[in-house]
Amino acid sequence: MGARKIMLLAAATALLTLGLTPVARARSANVAALQVAMKAVGLYGGSIDGVRGPGTRRAVRRFQRRHRLAVDGVAGPVTRRALGRRGRPRLGHRVIRRGHRGWDVAGLQFLLGRRGHSPGSIDGGFGRGTLGAVRSFQRAAGLVADGVVGPATLRALRRGGGRREGGHNGGGPVVFLRPLPGPITDGFGVRWGRMHTGIDFPAPTGTRVAAAGRGVVSFAGYNTGGYGNLVIVKHRLGFETWYAHLSTETSYVGEPVVGGTRVGLVGSTGHSTGPHLHFEVRHNGTPIDPMPRLLATAAGASSRLVPSVGPPLAPACDRQGLHTSRRPDRAHWPSRVC
Ligand SMILES: [Zn+2]
Fold first, then answer.
1. Of 115, 137, 167, at which residue does a domain stop?
2. Are residues 41 and 180 in the same domain?
3. 65-75 pLDDT, tens digit each
4. Of the candidates 278, 275, 277, which has an alpha carbon nearest to the alpha carbon of residue 197?
5. Distance 318 CA to ligand 1 centre (A)
6. Is the pTM of this model over 0.70?
């Protein structure tokens, strides 16, 4: 067996023993935990980014040399044991709560940050900042906000940036990424005596609109009732997301999408006073308030953190209240001026 083959085998074995899958998500949280541990022992000065780069590998090699372990730069079981309480327990091996310390807490903090609920610092200690972040994530994900991280919370967290929001697979609450970064100027509910069936994101014409989660495009075309150019994505468990007033739809009926897939560009078609995205979440055909299911993170390549509510960018919104309609091609339009 050549040296190269042996190295490959060693790397594969290390991945297996660490319980890592090739899925970036799982690897990221564990690598972040490893970075936190290496930082704590003074061997790593880089950022806690969950990326197993040269800096992280170098730190592990130095740690292994210092502890007279086999030097391979991979944090296998022996290396993690040598890290003491910083190297355990693995994420998901206990219910995590305030006061806990260790590998799993660091991984948890990393996942929270990636989902837009910053714990303040990623240091492997579950303090007040982490507690606040867990509760805020749980509220956003429709879970009981008890600040205790059991299997349901962990599942929802892991499902996150893995682009499976609103997905057909996997259990847990259905949550959505924001279709674009930026503030929301008009919320869901009764305004001026009329029902606003979605939320409005003012944005310049041509801004990329991304699917809020995994699903299949069920409508892409012009709606004469007021939505203008409209895309509808069907998600699991009877959920739909609607993207209205687009300048262009860039998706087609039957197209499978994930959180971040471009479905169209912002415009001002239909009953609209200016460029903005009217975004709706419907459950079994009925528009519901998207906010409790909306994550702080915007879908798309940058996954930027965005403020939940901000000052108006432009006075753009729907010219008339968008009214409940079970058919995208037939809408009823009560008048309302914003
Ligand atoms: Zn609207």
1. 167
2. no
3. 999 998 988 88
4. 278
5. 5
6. no
